[in-house]
Amino acid sequence: xxxxxxxxLLAAPRGFCAGVDRAIEIVKKSIDxxxxxxxxxxxxxxxxxxxxxxxxxxxxxxxxLSEIKDKTRPVIFSxxxxxxxxxxxxxNLKMEYVDAxxxxxxxxxxxxxxxxxxxxxxxxxxxxxxxxxxxxxxxIPKDGISLxxxxxxxxxxxxxxxxxxxxxxxxxxxxxxxxxxxxxxxxKFPEIKEPKKEDICYATTNRQAAVKKIAxxxxxxxxxxxRNSSNSLRLVEVAKNSGxxxxxxxxxxxxxxxxxxxxxxxxGISSGASAPEILVDNFINSLKKQFTIEIKEVEIVKEDIxxxxxxxxx
Length: 314
Fold this sequence. Notes:
This protein folds into three domains: about 110 residues, 3-Layer(aba) Sandwich (Cobalt-precorrin-4 Transmethylase, domain 1); about 80 residues, Rossmann fold (3-Layer(aba) Sandwich), CATH 3.40.50.11270; about 100 residues, 4-hydroxy-3-methylbut-2-enyl diphosphate reductase, catalytic domain (Cobalt-precorrin-4 Transmethylase, domain 1, 3-Layer(aba) Sandwich). The chain is about 40% helix and about 20% strand. α4 packs parallel to α5 and α8 runs parallel beside α9. It is flat and about 65 Å long.
C-alpha cells in the first residue's frame, strides 16, 4: 500500500471560526480567573476533542443549570446561544454567568427580537432541536415565532396576517438550501421582511464555498467534524451536491477507510468550524503512513475576523 500516490486537495478556510475561538478562550480565561471548576451549559462547541481538553483543565459540562451542585461557581453559556429563560434562571439562582454566544448568533437574536417588537411574526429557518435554534426561538414568546426546516414546510405554512411576516435563519445552514427556502417563502409571501444582512455566518459561507471549489475534482471527500455539528454535516452535503458523491464525515469514532482510499487518486479534506486543526493533521498523518501524499491547499479567501472576549475576563 505504502507507495500508492494520492493527491490531497485541502480546502481553506476550514476549521475554527472566530466565534469558536472566542468561546474556547472564554472557558480558558474563566478558569484562569475563577479557578476550577467552572461549569459550561451544553458543549461549548460541538467537538469531542475540544470538550475533553477543556474538561482536563477544570470545565464541567452540564445540559441544565439545575444539574450544577455548587451554585457559587460560574457557568458559561455555549457559543450556540441560549433562550432568554436561561440567564433569568441564573439570576434567580444568584449564579455568576459568562455568555460565550457567538456575536453572529447574538445578531440574529436581536434581529428576531426587534422584528417581533415591531409587530412581525417571525419565521426561523433552521433545524429543529439544534441548540442554536432553541436559543433563537427562546428570545421571543412561543406564539411569535415558527420554525421552517424545508420547502415542504413552506408549502404547508399558513398565517392569517402575511403582511407582518419576517424571517431569520440559523447561522450554520447550507447556503444553497437556504436560498431555495427563502425564494419559496418570498414567492408565497411577497411582503415578507428579510434580514438587512444575511444571517448565515461568514465562516459557514466561506467553508462551503471552499468545498464547492474542489469537490468536483475529488474521487472522495472527507469532512473532519462532529456528528452533532450542523456546519460539518452541511459541508458533507455541499461536497456531495458539488460533484463528489462519495463524501463523508470523519468524527471521533470513525475508522479511516484506507482500503477504499487506495482505489482513488485525489481526495478532498475540509473541517467543520468547531474542529481543531490537530484533527486534520492527525487524519493526514494516518494517510501518510500508508500512502505517498502530495498536498495542495486551495484557499478561496483569507479570514482575519476576531471577536473580543467579555471585559470582565481581561
